[in-house]
Amino acid sequence: MEKVKITKFMPTIKQMKDMVIKEVTYLEKHTNSRFTVTGRRIPKWGTWVNNWRSTPYIYKWSKEEEAILPKHYVDRCRDFMTRDQIPIHWRPNPARYRTDEDSGERIPVVNLPVPIVFPKECNLGLWGGEGIIFGYYKKDIPKKRLKLGTYPRLWRPYLQKKVLYSEILDRWMSINITPRTLHLVDESFGLDFYILKTHEVDLCSRLAMTLKREMLLALVRKSLYPDDPLKREKVYNKYKSFIIPEEEAEWIGLSGDDAVEKAKKLQAEQNPPQPLKNLYLVELLRRLQLDNPKVGIVSKVNPFKSKDGETTSR
C-alpha cells in the first residue's frame, strides 16, 4: 500500500486507476478518510455501468438476444448505462489543478462523485435523480472539547404524494415525488415537457419511462382526445417537436426481458415455421429434375395447389 500524507483526501490519477482497475484500497486505516473505492463492472454481456454511478435498474441480455434486438433500442440502453448523471448531491470543481496545503505542489483535480444508492422504490415515483447517501456525523464540534465517535448517518430524499396532470394523456395521477421534481416540473411548464425533455439517466425511474412511452405513442398515433378534434390538434402542435417514429416509440422504457420477448414475437411473425413435409417434397422434385430433365415440367407447377386453386396439404 502506498503511503501518502494528506490532510484532505484527494486521490491522484495513479490511485484512481488502481482503485478502479485493480480494486486497490488506499488510506484504509486513515481516520479522516475511511472508505473503500472499488470497481463496479458487471461481468455479463449487455451491461454497462459506470464505476462511480449506481442505477435503479440495468439492461442485460446475451449475445444471441442482442442480435435480434433493434439497433436504436440497444443504443439507448448503452447511452443510459454509460452516461453520467447531472450532479445533484455534489458540485464538480471546474479547475484542472489544485495546490497542496503542505508542499505547495500542483496536483490534478479529480472530480469524484458522491456515491448514491437508488432503491427499487424510486421506480414507482419521480425522485428527480435524487437517491440515498451514506455518510458519517461530523466529529469536531466547536462547543465540545472531546471528539465524538464515528457514527454513521443516512440522508434520504423527502418524499411527498402529489397529484399531477398529463395534458397528452388527459389523466390525473397521484405520484410520490420530491421537492426537486416539483421544481423541475414547474420549470419545464408541465409534467409532459419535463418527461419528454429529460434524459433517462436523469429521470432514473421506470414509471417516468413508461409515461414517456405512452406520451410518444399517443402523439405519433394521434390517439389523444378522440372526442375533441380541436383540442387534439392544439395539443399535438404543442408537443409535435418530440415525435419519433412509432417503431422506436414502442421500445422506449422497455426492460431487457420485455424487449427480448417482444423481439422474439416479431421474429416469429416475420419468419413463420414451415412444415417439413413441404420442404422435403420440394427437395425431392429438385433431385428428380437433376436426374431426369423431362421431370422439369413438374417442378414449375406448384405441388401444393389443386386444380381449383386451393392449397392442399397431405
From TrEMBL:
Keywords: Ribonucleoprotein, Ribosomal protein. Belongs to the bacterial ribosomal protein bL28 family. GO terms for molecular function: structural constituent of ribosome. The keyword Ribonucleoprotein applies. This is Large ribosomal subunit protein bL28m. InterPro entries: Ribosomal_bL28 (IPR026569), Ribosomal_bL28/bL31-like_sf (IPR034704). GO terms for cellular component: mitochondrial large ribosomal subunit. It comes from the Eukaryota.
